[in-house]
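okkk here we go again. third time trying to get the pyridoxal-5'-phosphate bound version out, last two times i messed up the smiles copy paste (missing a bracket lol). double checked this time i swear
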Amino acid sequence: MITNYNKEFTDYLLDIYGQVEFTPTHGVGARLYDDNNRMVIDFMAGIAVNALGYSHPVLIEALTKQANKIWHCSNIMVNQPAVELAKLLVTNSCCHKAFFCNSGTEANEAALKLARRYGLKSAGSNKKTIVSFNNSFHGRTLFAVSVGGQHKYSEDFAPLPAGIEHGIFNDLSSADELINENTAAVIVEPIQAEGGVIPATVEFLQHLRKLCDKYNAILIFDEVQTGIGRTGKLFAYQHYQVEPDIITLAKALGGGFPIGAILVKDKFAHGFDIGSHGTTFGGNPLACSVGLATVQIINQPKFLNDVNVKAQKFTEYLQQLNDEFKLYQEIRGRGLLIGAELNQAHQNKAKQLMVNGFKYGVASLIASPNVSRFTPPLVIKDEDIELGFTRFRLALQEFSKS
Ligand SMILES: Cc1ncc(COP(=O)(O)O)c(C=O)c1O
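finally!!
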């Protein structure tokens, strides 16, 4: 039996990911297994996606029940699971309308297109600038890499879409310089996730809110990674006393089934009207049924409180290991989106540490070359946090001797 498909992968698929040597075939909770019954503790949840872990019985039931009814009907027809999921999301957020798509990138694309069109219709063709921030990540389409604040993702793909400006994250005066009457939208991650797990300050987001109000620009919070319980609240904006005009979502929304969404305030909802945007698969009944079950489970006070309790435990373990090995200069984040930044002596080695982790049976992530990132399933059990860190300790030990 083949248990390592790395060679076959690169024979038949584009080689763009540089996978670790592990081919999971099944999973339960926060444990992943391959066909040899090798078990890996999951501190990454499919890149902040599998919020309810693997094989959650309620999600399996939601998926299989819907699979026996209808998989796809197109957006020419009304689909009931989409309506129910939209209702659940808008009644639990500051927004009023939803649009479903298939990924975080598509959610941002839709939000940015809506903002450009709203600007055009409300104020004419000069109101088109998108303001974003250095180091941000908003996805991989040409518009999304151009809006994202990491040059490495866009530099090989010119010509890029025009009318996009980048400010300095968490810098109020930089926002003052860029945002004006020609700004259609400001897009920001409440916590820059891929860029290094860097939380926005309260002052920064409140300042963006003020500037967007002043110039009638749309404030978009990219909550693709922070949304749906990851930070210990349903949405990260709820930590900040700032309401965005559009929230973009994906990742945890489907509990592992592909789905993206934008939530929009009434005031801006007519930025799109019939025919101005669309998707074939977006919001299909299978995705929305699983999404509905996922959000129903996560959006409970006890569930969200448990995320915070687990996050505290998780950070304590990490801190203890750092007291022993002194590799990290800062541990930060919110809820179960946690980053640990390597100190000066170990710059650019986060990937090596991640690979070491896999070797010892724990899956984690990186966020920039210097930051280890941890996004475990929100349902991870205490014993799995402990076992994961017992394993991660061995990875750190080997790393510190290298
Ligand atoms: C904040 C943020 N926005 C957008 C995206 C893109 O989402 P997707 O990969 O689903 O297109 C990501 C993915 O990591 C993300 O973290």
